[in-house]
Design goal:
Six copies of one chain form a homohexamer. Chain A is α/β, with parallel strands linked by helices and about 240 residues long. Chain A has six helices and eight strands; from the N terminus they run βαβαβαβαββααββ. In chain A, β2, α2 and β3 form a beta-alpha-beta unit. Chains in contact: A-B, A-D, A-E, A-F, B-C, B-D, B-E, C-D, C-E, C-F, D-F, E-F. Chains A, B, C, D, E, F: InterPro entries: GlcNAc_PI_deacetylase-related, LmbE-like_dom_sf.
Chain lengths: ~240, ~240, ~240, ~240, ~240, ~240
């Protein structure tokens, strides 16, 4: 049985804000959580790092270190930086193959990535498209006998949901691991401008989940949209 | 903990074709499955029953008997006929209140009903709207202290999915109870013209589920679209 | 074989601007074109008629006379005024039954009516909904043995297409009957403010059709959106 | 020139959470802000008020007092309670006429109301539909010579935006009147459970607006979706 | 007058399952049916062919032979393999030019291809996009004086219609050529796992078409979605 | 404060038909209007220029001269031809960088470009996508300290709005500059076949705007769809 999850993001920061709770929650339960960051987000999502005559390499090194620290806090099993550059993130057949190889090796049964549309950030759309292409490549016998059962794809929350046509159909209760997610967020001081914003996102999703939850304790949440129908053996838990 | 499910349909036949598998499956596991049929479908969905000088009451009695037989096969706990008439089904505040009362009494955590849109069958849209209104009424403290936690609403498959904008995000494996569903279908000879059609629907949904399923045995399925985000404590089973 | 068409509009003017070409074209070819106007449009679409102390009955009589004149020019076979009032047009089960009876009597194989959505004119949405309900009622054996094969429904063009989510998939060449449509428009002097507007609509649809047409002569057109899939025996003419 | 705005809500609380900032902002600038509450929200949105043997009239009186206090803080010019009841809110032709009369009297150039869709709260959809019907009635010469230029309709933010298909295209900077909105929120202790939630909504909208704003001071915002195209004389401010 | 049709598919199998009926039907009536397969589907849609140490060339040769046999059964006039590889299918400007040249040479008035969206199979989306680009190239005078009248584009049915947002507006009765389509399907033993699935698809579409058809004999069908409005000279057949 | 606007089009003709009014209007008020044409439209939108043995360079020179003349009439501040070729327009990272540099240099607060979807003209979709990518590149600190506040993007009207899913939310009154737009149109004799078509478009948009406008003088208009929410300080003008 699979006990592995793959997260694919455009920039180093995305996994913390958007699915850090899911990562910590599943890692804590013994799931191997693998992470692929297609770029360091050095151009467009490291504003605070560009001061005076800062060099590109220094910015990338700083963001890499932050990502490694946050990933460790969340319990990530493996971390792969593709270093494709960003704003814009280029398409890359090599990268698609590398994600595909990761899928074949990890047998992940679920992939977390960006939603399909985002007019304010085409890097996110590109990542979604590359992740889906990698999924195809991983399930094709012609690319090797280690082909996989096609995993579910869950899109995590973008910065402005309505702008992206994001329609979450899953609310995950992350109350138990909130402290860990909060620590991971703080391990990314270059984007400290997002701390309060994503704390509020977690509280809103927690409030929405709490209204229909079975326990009174839900305070923090994360929202996801599934791309493929879930195959289930019951309609009630 | 809730162990109850409510099914609300426009006509007597709908529950068998569209969610008979889910009903049998959950009943078999000890869930109380309650059924509300807003009409007998006597006008528009009993074509074979109208012969020569058949009277309306005879058609209604015949359809009622069929529904009772099918419901028994599926293991239904309670069955309520509202007898509103069909083609078209009228709006009814009384009926909304009666569904609301059923929700308060049964504490169902999930409601199965028709999807929101269907240009070929407005009775289905009306039923969806009445079920959602009943859900509101059931959760309002001002209508009595026995108000409920708002249940999930799952829409079952219409006759022509694309015409209705139906987008299933859940595929239920009903292989284990297929025989029972098939028997219930045959308990409705007035609509024998639909037997083969809905057997094929079940096989198609089974094939789609089987591609991504964990076991090799999936042969029959049913498709559902959730209206509200599911509140979950994990993203993998 | 059916050789009958039914047009259902909210106000008396609608049929001229929106499907006058189709009516003239089919009437000329021997199709019986039946027309139902649910209101005289006396409140909201007869602005020029309300002067000084004009009485409601006078306005209605004037609009009725205009509609009769235009219908005659277009070759209408029967004309039925329901006189429900407008702005807003009320729902009416009686009216639905009356449209249903017209369908049973005429055996129309196609119904032309307003599109489903129009935030600026809810009378149009109401008419669409009533026409679809009447279609159901007409096809139900329980309402009489003269039930019909369900007709296609084609929505004609609203005033602001994008506002209404109108997506035409049929462009009808009305060049041959344009003169007749233009005469019918001029038979409605109360809405002379719309003459130039709908002449331009016809020219735009003609230009769009002409780009992909087989003959060079297309100058005027009308746009339609089908609600149900067309059942065809070939994909090319 | 019009200097009047009309707000139409389903329940007494809605105007505070959803458009209290816009109300305070425009009132402060001399616009007459008129408010219509179709119900007191006594059944479904006054949970904290139903204790022991509380009577319906007491709950309604309490909510009315809260609404009057909040409206005064925001600078409302007139306040009209239709007392239709809620959960569910019934359709009412009388109420539509009354809103229409308010539009004719106030000559409001903009109407703020709920968005069209909300499966969790059909009272909101009903209100949207009644407001649009009232707009039609108000612009029809046949209902009186005081007919109006059709106002813009702006939908304010629902509780769960993605569930409602809410797509805001306007972000209003309410930083200057935030204190006033916050006071109005606190004047509604029956729904104190929503205070923190809607403070966070305002901060999120403020952050989104601030990213593209011209000044650095934007901290609080409100989101709106326009139903009709805006008629403008320039594309830049 | 054009009497030619062009089919463009991603993989060799697609034309049989998705539009084999239309191909046989039109070929039988004297239309020249041209077929372009962008890849052999060797990687992702030839699972049964990959056994032990099978070589890629052998798989491709096997699928090519199957496609040629099936095409012959359906009466195809020309068959062009672009051999681009699959899972994923790469973009190719050369291939677009080659399709464009085929369009100019054949003067096809209709193109059958995959629908625009399919998250489970991006090769299908790529093919749609390349076919539309080729259509542009074929209609541009700057690419040669043999430019064409822009053909209609009809999308055939994907594996999971709702997942792809497929909304068919045309149902083609293929009862007369079903035996031929069934033979063509059996000429593709590598994908024998799809035989029963697509037989059921044909039966479902036949049943849907039969409900509104003019004759009682409709048993098998195919569904299509048109991209461009159809230009017609009548609204009834 | 920004007083600059950027227009990005696929072909040389687009700016005249689609946003010539906006360009003239803002230029007349002192806004610097910058124009980028990604191709000369020599292949697909210069039909009248291809006669006998005309050479490509001659067609391009002719279209360039027309564009320069039209741009001068409209008061354009700068004009940049990227000469990428058309039908199809290729993707180009260089071009994206060049647009990005233009944005950084001009500090445009609004970008006018094609809408996202157009199945009949993929060059338009490509241009939209490249403009959005350039916007990202322009706002990224890692590409230079002269990064910009992200501009609004407004899509202008395509040839067939419904085919493109174009939903305008802004109607611009261009009555005051209509004569200038008309002159610019006539400066493009190669596309004289579009003169009457786009005169009618302007009249239809003018009529739509006039219905809700504040003055009686609106005769001509242009329609736009905003991609990002507008950040405003009031909901009424």
């Amino acid at each position: 049985m699979s006990s592995s999850m793959l997260v694919v993001t455009a920039h180093v920061g995305d996994f913390v804000w958007r699915c850090g709770g899911a990562m910590a929650l599943h890692a804590q339960r013994g799931v191997d959580v693998h992470l692929v960051c297609l770029s360091y987000g050095e151009n467009g999502e490291s504003n605070a790092a560009w001061k005076g005559d800062t060099q590109r390499d220094a910015v990338k090194a700083q963001r890499r270190a932050e990502a490694e620290a946050a990933a460790q806090i969340l319990g990530v099993a493996s971390l792969d930086f593709h270093d494709l550059g960003d704003y814009p993130l280029p398409d890359s057949a090599d990268s698609v193959r590398r994600i595909s190889d990761t899928l074949r090796r990890t047998k992940a049964s679920v992939v977390l990535t960006h939603p399909e549309h985002d007019p304010s950030n085409l890097d996110h759309c590109r990542t979604f498209e590359m992740a889906l292409r990698a999924r195809m490549q991983a399930m094709a016998p012609g690319h090797g006998a280690d082909f996989v059962v096609p995993p579910q794809v869950l899109c995590f929350e973008p910065h402005q949901t309505e702008l992206c046509g994001f329609k979450p159909n899953v609310l995950l209760d992350i109350t138990d691991v909130w402290e860990r997610k909060w620590q991971a967020m703080q391990a990314m001081p270059t984007q400290s401008n997002l701390w309060a914003y994503y704390e509020r996102v977690a509280l809103q999703r927690g409030a929405q989940a709490g209204r229909r939850g079975k326990t009174a304790g839900t305070r923090y949440g994360e929202a996801y949209q599934s791309i493929f129908p879930a195959v289930v053996s019951a309609l009630m838990e």
